[in-house]
Specification:
Shape: elongated
Number of helices: 2
Number of strands: 2
Radius of gyration: 22 Å
Distance between the termini: 51 Å
Structural class: mainly alpha
Number of domains: 2
Strand content: under 5%
Helix content: 40-55%
Strand order of the largest sheet: 1-2
């Protein structure tokens, strides 16, 4: 029997963690238990990872559609054009700014 990807599956784990970090997480997130101090930041890291993946997909789509272009000087840097994208598409030969 296979579980759904989003199904809650709890497993007991024996790990060694820095107590100072656990105390700090409890204080930052205003939580009471050690389990929450580990689970909440872990969930937020997963959510942030998903956000960045979605953002990357969105930028890739905008580049393909011509709304954004990659900077010629740095391959991983995206350059917005001087004209707001909602008004006009970026001509392929126009250089953007970083």
């Amino acid at each position: 029997m296979s579980a759904k990807p989003d199904a809650l599956i709890l497993k007991r784990k024996n790990v060694v963690l820095d107590q100072i970090k656990i105390n700090r997480a409890k204080r930052i997130f205003d939580i009471d238990t050690k389990t929450e101090a580990v689970d909440l930041p872990l969930q937020q890291a997963l959510d942030l990872s998903e956000f960045w993946r979605d953002l990357d997909r969105g930028f890739t789509r905008l580049i393909r559609q011509g709304w954004l272009q990659r900077s010629a000087s740095r391959a991983k840097t995206l350059a917005l054009t001087d004209v707001p994208p909602r008004f006009r598409r970026v001509p392929p030969n126009q250089s953007g700014f970083v």
